[in-house]
Amino acid sequence: MASLASRSLKALRVASRRAPRAVTQHASAASYSLLARSAVASSARRATTPNTVRGIKTLDFAGTEEVVYERSDWPLAKLQDYFKNDTLALIGYGSQGHGQGLNARDNGLNVIVGVRENGESWRQALEDGWVPGETLFPIEEAINRGTIIMNLLSDAAQSSTWPTLAPLITKGKTLYFSHGFSVVYKEDTKVIPPTDVDVILVAPKGSGRTVRTLFKEGRGINSSIAVWQDVTGKAKEKATAIGVAIGSGYMYETTFEREVYSDLYGERGVLMGGIQGMFLAQYKVLRENGHSPSEAFNETVEEATQSLFPLIGAKGMDYMYSACSTTARRGALDWAPIFEAANRPVFEKLYKSVRDGTETRKSLEFNGRSTYRQDLARELKEIDEQEIWRAGKTVRSLRPDYKP
Ligand SMILES: NC(=O)c1ccc[n+]([C@@H]2O[C@H](COP(=O)([O-])OP(=O)(O)OC[C@H]3O[C@@H](n4cnc5c(N)ncnc54)[C@H](OP(=O)(O)O)[C@@H]3O)[C@@H](O)[C@H]2O)c1
């Protein structure tokens, strides 16, 4: 079954390189993804039973009621009909452009890509089967051809290109973002949308690569949706529909402000900055106390990512604790509040730095440089060369499913 699915996917990829429009039509007969075809067929059968029909709903999140939108509200035929007169113009083809664009294309929608001609993104778009003059255009031309302008340039580029792009976003078009960054921090970015277009947001809560892999597995990523400006009265509905189109499974309503504050905070905190800092601090103390690199790595990173963190993801923190020894449980229960107290001032400082725009200005300055790719790559190489991550390469190489 799995190999059949992967053969179908391979065939789709080959076909998509040759003739993206034909694939679009083929996919329209399929589903949210080829791999999900059978899953969706059976969920469609279930949806005929009234008690199991799901859709927009209010759920109790630890005592707070919140509205959640879900994909089953938008069967593929309805989705395609809704967007039948639209062209989704993806501007930028980084990680989100790749994931969102391919998913919307596989969902049978009219999608085009607009990027700098002959840049790295142009090359990647060609590799993914977008065809120059048909589905791949320079940025300005793609905006002119699109009705829904999906601004997926880097946040710094959204700001630097705005004076050129803004006049092209004319009445009747919709302006879409995947981050509240540009419009919320408008004093710094100077991105002020025209007053006669809907301005909406779908922000997947994960990398664009995950947006794509979850879609291919027939699952969907969690996304935040929000409306900045509703000219047509349909902005929220449109945001929900596009959320489904680009591969979301569940969508949580928020505002542009709350999305950008929480996102900038989270990625600098536990998701990326915090985790690297914690891993490194723990590893270094082990090494200073005579532990070998493999022991320090296994006890810091490997056990976390391969054993314990997936248990938190599956069933929560108490479940992970319960799966560990009583010795481990006692110690972790004692030390968790100490770590919380030590970290809390750092998180408070971080949140303040997000809210007052310090993080935005730093990002605009750094990522606005013409050398942003090389500059980021240099610093990431420094991480890659840290002993902890060099030790990790050897540990990973021993896994049975290791791929260099
Ligand atoms: N990645 C994530 O995990 C994630 C998650 C949720 C939301 N978002 C949001 O999604 C949006 C896109 O993010 P991303 O990670 O996909 O992309 P990104 O890596 O931040 O940006 C890449 C795109 O920006 C283009 N670009 C950069 N500088 C440019 C310039 N001066 N002129 C024209 N194009 C330029 C690049 O084209 P070239 O190749 O030609 O340089 C590339 O297509 C952002 O708003 C981001 O905050 C990202």
From TrEMBL:
Free-text cofactor note: Binds 2 magnesium ions per subunit.
Pathway: Amino-acid biosynthesis; L-valine biosynthesis; L-valine from pyruvate: step 2/4; Amino-acid biosynthesis; L-isoleucine biosynthesis; L-isoleucine from 2-oxobutanoate: step 2/4
Predominant subcellular localization, coarse grouping: mitochondrion
InterPro entries: 6-PGluconate_DH-like_C_sf (IPR008927), 6PGD_dom2 (IPR013328), KARI (IPR013023), KARI_C (IPR000506), KARI_N (IPR013116), KetolA_reductoisomerase_fun (IPR016207), NAD(P)-bd_dom_sf (IPR036291)
Record Gene3D superfamilies: N-(1-d-carboxylethyl)-l-norvaline Dehydrogenase, domain 2, NAD(P)-binding Rossmann-like Domain
Domain KARI C-terminal knotted: 255-402
Keyword annotations of the record: Amino-acid biosynthesis, Branched-chain amino acid biosynthesis, Magnesium, Metal-binding, Mitochondrion, NADP, Oxidoreductase, Transit peptide
Any one GO BP annotation for this protein: isoleucine biosynthetic process
UniProt EC number: 1.1.1.86
Binding site residues for Mg(2+) 1: D263, E267
Pfam (any one): KARI_C
Chain residues that bind substrate: S325
A single MF term (Gene Ontology): ketol-acid reductoisomerase activity
Family (UniProt): Belongs to the ketol-acid reductoisomerase family.
Descriptive protein name: Ketol-acid reductoisomerase, mitochondrial
